[in-house]
Amino acid sequence: MSRIGKQPIAIPDGVKVTLQDGSVDFNGPNGNLNVKYHSDMIVKHEDNFIVVTRPSDGLQHRALHGTTRQIIANGVTGVSKGFSIELEIIGVGYQANMQGKRLVLQLGYSHDIIFDPPEGIKIEANRTEVKVFGAMKELVGEVAAKIRSFRKPEPYKGKGVRYKGEYVRSKQGKTVGGTD
Question: How far apart are CA 155 and CA 44, in angstroms?
Answer without folding.
Answer: 50
